[in-house]
Design brief:
The structure holds two protein chains of two kinds. Chain A is mainly alpha-helical. Chain A is built from 14 helices and no strands. Chain A is globular. The N and C termini of chain A lie close together (about 10 Å). By secondary structure, chain B is an all-alpha fold. Chain B has one domain: Orthogonal Bundle (MetI-like fold). In chain B, about 70% of the residues lie in helices and about 0% in strands. The longest helix of chain B is centred in the middle third of the chain and has 37 residues, at about 100-135. Chain B starts with a helix and ends in a 6-residue tail after the last helix. The chains are: A mainly alpha, B mainly alpha.
């Protein structure tokens, strides 16, 4: 019962935070001045009369607080308004979400599956040759700009070796499909971005698991378990891993929050049709309705992800009480 | 051991400070020393930029005045030349010497890294100290504010800020400053929470209670006792934040939102990526230098954490 109470209380507390954020996002745009004026700045082909008509169409001629309230009420029914470039924001974002989730979830899954065993091994055989090699590669992985890695992969595997396409989510014409199959073709396009993206998320997880395992293995209860004659495997996987996973849960929780933002750089490098690339393109032309919509959706997602993370803590570690 | 005891030994009268002890531990750590050397060498490069560069900033070899082509014909354009003696890292498709541009970009990397970190850590320290020491509603308000900022997708907001700035004033010279300010203004929540946690721990120590007993003011306790005892964490967080800020600048520049008027490694990488098939070397050098400097700060940060945090000592 306390769980339901906790959920209700936390959700109630999220409301003011969310309202504060919508207000902040809304005012960041308005502080810069009239959005129509900014978006069409330096455009000599547009007359003041046309600007006024654009304002009327988007309701930007009304007082600012009415605009905010209108935007907020439409937000409640998930209507994010119309893009300056035409089309509804919800549709634009909706089209990108699938591509983003495909890349993000696959990358996250692969990186966890690879990184956690590596981290455990590194902690178990600390300072062995393999540990030093693996953890230094992970350190390089956290330091390398993802754009650099992406370009290098495209150049080597896409251009010189010609193994994978260098961008996009699928071939433009049917005759170019890999073995004439659309699904194989999409997987083929997915390979390089996933590889780069997995490596980018993997590196910090390896370091995190390693340091967290080392910390846990030093604890007294591990010594006690060893003294009572438990085998290495049982100690490592039953006693240590569960406790060492808490920082990983935090990491994954934070990661899920930003998930909808896509990976603007990766998606742009590989010309991947996700939300991140959409945001970059729309920010370039200052399409404010899209900017606001994406930022608010991501914040909402982050708030929910934080709540889920807190609940997961309590599940993994009974010492953490929900109250 | 007769030989040892017979040697006249000087007794140290003064003790060794905690910083001295930490420095000794840092010196033993090879990875941290490697980080220090990388940061030091690139730092010297940034300071001596005019002296060690081969060509003036942004000069298109062979076309711009005062930067002749070192080959037999001084006015031949040097476009997309692979690495050679005259151009150690080659030239890009604009005919600029990549090595010289790297040297000039080092200063921007340090400016962004250190500037953004100074802002972020100054805010984080103030909020962390005040929230942790005073507790109660002050802590509550400050931590809710921290959560709100933490939830905002700061990278996306940075892009919006920069696009608005460069749209309204295309020749703005303060682009790098805006990048520094925005990274700084949004990067403090994580560090603030860690510093607050440390203050919560330190504040329960007896010397703080003793200080309060003899009538020290809250201000004095904050800056005389709590601040110096959280300084080790602030230093570690700073080095890691510098690394993160440099990577953020690289990403911003790559997406075309960087400052068009400064020479940065991120922009060099972005420019080179458009013509990577013709001149891959123009992108290789900035990519490697960003990685090196970020890794240098990361190594240094990890080493400092091991050297400074007494709880990690084995």
């Amino acid at each position: 019962m306390s769980l339901i109470k906790y959920l209700i209380r936390r959700s109630l507390y999220l409301i003011p935070v969310f309202l504060g954020i919508t207000l902040l996002v809304f005012s960041i745009e308005r502080l810069a001045g009239d959005p129509v004026q900014i978006a069409t700045f330096g455009n000599t082909h547009i007359t003041e009369d046309q600007r006024q008509r654009i304002r009327q169409y988007y309701g930007l001629d009304k007082p600012v607080y009415l605009q905010y309230l209108h935007w907020l009420s439409e937000l409640l029914v998930l209507n994010l308004g119309d893009s300056f470039g035409g089309g509804s924001v919800s549709n634009l974002v909706g089209q990108g979400i699938l591509a983003t989730l495909e890349l993000q979830l696959l990358g996250l899954f692969l990186s966890l599956v690879i990184a956690i065993p590596i981290g455990i091994y590194s902690a178990k055989r600390r300072y062995s040759v393999l540990d030093v090699t693996l953890s230094s590669s992970a350190l390089v992985g956290t330091s390398i700009p993802i754009s650099f890695m992406g370009i290098a992969f495209i150049l080597i595997f896409g251009y010189y070796l010609n193994l994978f396409p260098s961008g996009g989510a699928q071939s433009t014409i049917q005759s170019q499909y890999l073995y004439g199959n659309v699904i194989l073709d999409q997987l083929w396009h997915l390979t390089l971005p996933t590889l780069v993206y997995t490596f980018a998320i993997l590196a910090p997880v390896v370091l995190l698991v390693r340091s967290s395992m080392l910390e846990v293995l030093r604890q007294d209860y591990i010594l006690a378990a060893r003294a009572s004659g438990l085998g290495d495997r049982a100690i490592l996987y039953k006693h240590a891993l569960r406790n060492a996973l808490i920082p990983i849960v935090t990491y994954v929780g934070l990661y899920f929050g930003g998930l909808l933002a896509g990976a603007p750089v990766t998606e742009t490098v590989f010309n991947w049709p996700g939300v991140g690339a959409l945001f970059v393109v729309k920010t370039n032309v200052l399409d404010f309705p899209v900017i606001q919509g994406v930022v608010v959706l991501i914040t909402l997602m982050t708030l929910v992800a934080n709540l889920v993370t807190d609940l997961t803590y309590a599940y993994i570690d009974p010492r953490i009480r929900i109250d | 051991m007769a030989s040892l005891s017979s040697r006249p030994r000087k007794r140290r009268v003064s003790g060794v400070s905690q910083w001295e002890l930490a420095w000794r531990r840092l010196k033993m750590n090879k990875a941290a020393l490697a980080g220090l050397v990388i940061v030091g060498v690139i730092g010297v490069m940034a300071l001596l930029d005019q002296l060690i560069a081969l060509y003036p900033p942004n000069c298109n070899v062979g076309t711009t005045p005062n930067c002749p082509n070192p080959g037999p014909k001084p006015d031949v354009w040097a476009i997309g030349i692979p690495p050679s003696w005259s151009f150690p890292f080659g030239t890009n498709l604009a005919g600029q010497d990549v090595y010289s541009q790297i040297v000039y970009g080092a200063r921007a990397a340090f400016l962004v890294g250190i500037g953004a970190t100074a802002i972020a850590l100054a805010i984080a320290t103030l909020i962390g100290l005040v929230a942790g020491y005073f507790g109660g509603w002050v802590d509550n308000v400050l931590m809710r504010l921290t959560e709100v900022v933490l939830v905002l997708p700061f990278f996306l907001i940075l892009l919006v800020f920069l696009r608005i700035l460069f749209t309204l004033s295309p020749g703005a010279s303060g682009g790098l400053l805006v990048i520094i300010l925005v990274i700084g203004a949004f990067s403090w929540p994580g560090p603030a929470r860690i510093i607050r946690g440390e203050v919560l721990r330190v504040r329960e120590f007896e010397y703080v209670a003793a200080s309060r007993q003899i009538g020290a003011s809250g201000f004095r306790i904050l800056f005389r006792h709590l601040f110096p005892n959280t300084l080790h964490i602030i230093i570690v967080l700073s080095t890691l934040q510098i690394a993160g800020s440099i990577l953020t600048e690289a990403a911003v520049s790559f997406l075309g939102f960087g400052d068009p008027n400064s020479i940065t490694w991120g922009r060099q990488l972005a420019d080179a990526s458009e013509a990577v098939k013709q001149a891959w070397w123009a992108g290789l050098a900035p990519g490697i230098f960003i990685t090196l400097l970020v890794m240098g700060f990361n190594l240094l940060g990890n080493g400092l954490r091991d050297a400074l945090d007494p709880r990690l000592r084995e």
